[in-house]
Structures are given as structure tokens and as C-alpha cells.
Amino acid sequence: xxxxxxxxxxxxxxxxxxxxxxxxxxxxxxxxxxxxxxxxxxxxxxxxxxxxxxxxxxxxxxxxxxxxxxxxxxxxxxxxxxxxxxxxxxxxxxxxxxxxxxxxxxxxxxxxxxxxxxxxxxxxxxxxxxxxxxxxxxxxxxxxxxxxxxxxxxxxxxxxxxxxxxxxxxxxxxxxxxxxxxxxxxxxxxxxxxxxxxxxxxxxxxxxxxxxxxxxxxxxxxxxxxxxxxxxxxxxxxxxxxxxxxxxxxxxxxxxxxxxxxxxxxxxxxxxxxxxxxxxxxxxxxxxxxxxxxxxxxxxxxxx
Length: 304
Description:
By secondary structure, the protein is α/β, with parallel strands linked by helices.
């Protein structure tokens, strides 16, 4: 009996699951080549016991942009696991598949980055933002962490008002003198900067921290509204580590959506992007299948 290997690759964490067993590791970088990305997935597969696999289903924030690179990634995974089929999609698609059981509505998922996807029957799948930390992901963990560090650095060198974020940054990163250089040289700067989002949310009694969370929530609302405008969806599902129920960003985003002119019904995500990766092998509407990259071949012996 062969199994489904489901993989969720965010900007910070790579997760894999077969049945009830799950393994996690630091996420690969977008600059990693297909072989390196495959090695990271295969390491988790081995941690799960190298089970016989018929299908590998991946939702990746670092999904290779070039067809040849996607094909190479699939070939590596097929050759090493013996899988017949490899299915890939952007993690914005798998976040949506996990968040909304009937697929109808807008999924708004915030971790290090942001994935906002909308769909209603008869309409194409709409993806909003998700431009990565260089160009988008407004309101996500990296964005919040970066804004918090900017405020701390401005206070430190006298360009901005005093803020509790300065002491928090020193506690997490050490002296602020030379911090920008250290972050530019960091091997995983997006993850490191995003880690400060936890401190920003913890310090919302500080006016600058509270303002950052409020602006993040407004940005997330704008993404949800853009998806709703293009799909006519009325349900918004909130998910992701940065939108944990009870946390300030979740509360602020819920409030922003509640007063939106779109009269949203707001729910928490029913499942995770890893749950959504498992659904890639299911019978999905054609609108979603257009976003999948599927590679199939005859079964071959696998190497462990």
C-alpha cells in the first residue's frame, strides 16, 4: 500500500506528513536549486521512515518559477521515493484548500509572509499579494518584524521617538549598533527579522508597536477586499501563525474585516496549508487544477 506524502514549504518552516506522522525542519530558501529543495523534502521523508509513496503533493512558497526547474524537482522526488505522481502548487493555493472545506470564499493566511486567495464557483481563482518579502506580503510576520526593527533603530539613533521596541530588539538581537550589517549578512534574514513580530505583538501597550499591528491589520483587510471584489466572495477564513486567535493581529484584523463595506462573514481557517497539500490529489474544480503542476510516470524502484 502506497501513501501520500504531503509537504508544506513556507518561508520559515518545511513540514511533511504521511498519514498521522509529521516532521518539520527549517524551510529551504527561494534561491535553493531543485536538487537542494528535493534533498530537504527527502530528509523529512526519511525522518518519517521512508514509507512507500505513490504521490508527493507539495505547496511551496519557494515553488520554482521555471518549468524546467519544477520538472527537475519532480524527477528527483520520483527517483528517490518511487512516487508515480508529483503535484506542486503555490502555498497560497494549499492554504486555501486547507482553510475552506467547500473552497468558497477568501483565505487570508499570515505567517512570515501572506497568502490571500479567493474563489467562487464560475470564477477563476484569484491570488492577491503573496509577492514575497521583497515586494509584498504586507501585514505578515516579516513586514511586522521589519517595521518594529525600523522603529527601534530610529529611536536608538535619535531619528524617532522612544519606544519599548528598542529594549525588545536588544534583548532578542543584542546591541543595536551594527544590527543592520548583521542582518544583511544573516543567512536567513527574512526568518530572523520575522521573529521580531512576536515582540511587536507582545508590546501593543507601546503606541508604536500598536500602530504597526494596526497598519498590518489594515493591509490584510485590503488584500481580503481585493480578493472579494474579484470573486464576489463573502466569507473570509483567517489562518497562519501570525493570525493565531487571541493574538493582537488576529483581533485587529477581525475588527478591520468586521467594519469593511464588504459585510464579511469571518471564520478561522478549518485546517492548515499542510492539510491543503493533502487535498492536491483530490478531485478539485478546474479553476484550481489550472494552478497545479502535475508530473506522472511509471513506478520505478526507489532509493532510500
